[in-house]
Amino acid sequence: MRYASLASGSKGNCHAFSDGESTLLVDVGISFLQIRRRLEELAWDLGQVKAVAITHEHSDHIAAIPVLLKRTDWSFLATEETMAAILAIQDIDIPAHRWIPLRAGHALDWEGWRVLPFAIPHDAADPVGYRLERDGYSAAVVTDLGLPTALVADHCSDLDHLTLESNHDVQMLREGSYPPPLKARILSRVGHLSNESAAELLDRVWSPRLASVVLAHLSEQNNDPELARFAAMEVLRHRSTQLQVATQTSPFLLSMGPGETGDGMMGEEMRIE
Ligand SMILES: [Zn+2]
Ligand SMILES: [Zn+2]
Questions:
Q1: Which residues sit with Cβ closer than 5 angstroms to ligand 2, an ion?
Q2: Domain region containing 201
Q3: Which of 53, 58, 66, 234 lies deepest, with the highest CB count within 10 Å?
């Protein structure tokens, strides 16, 4: 099983998971050109991409959909409310055979994968995180949430890999230049996860099985990758879990699964600074 962070942050999010035969993207908030370039950079076969699982309809998660509908035959996994919101925002139609409807809390079998969307608190129509399972390997992507709810923690238990939002440092946000209403939105229970809350969740869900954590959706203005890393390291110190920070511009990949952790990840870590 492989995971790649293609982009993460308020200017566009895209994560990739592969079992060697099929690739599932989670969100497509960067252009199709960038998706192609970044997969190519990681020597990842574009031809294996079969579908995109959408977390919610904010533009940094869906921007490429109109182009992908025209230029690829990929399917789109999304809940009914999220798909309705996307169609309204982008003023597009989606052919029935390109849409695989999801319901939060209900697992779906996709190409032999178990895809489980689960509700997260965020100011969108029906936002979800994803738990993905394949060949005994479990991973989750959880970004764009105001609170680490018990439901989110439940779905992040016994993971091999977790991509987790670590959006802002609360003090930097409070003292920063964002207008007060925007600060309030980010800090609210349907906003974004702080470094502190991300670390709290990490502590709750950590198990010896957790091989890797990628901190994602960092704010460029209200965070510093070192602060995010430091908060998570407080939890991971003396534990064997590898930690990386996803960025807006530099893709990287992790190979995991039985016997695959270790060297490759350390090597890749060099790329993200
Ligand atoms: Zn976002
Ligand atoms: Zn969002």
A1: 58, 144
A2: 2-251
A3: 53
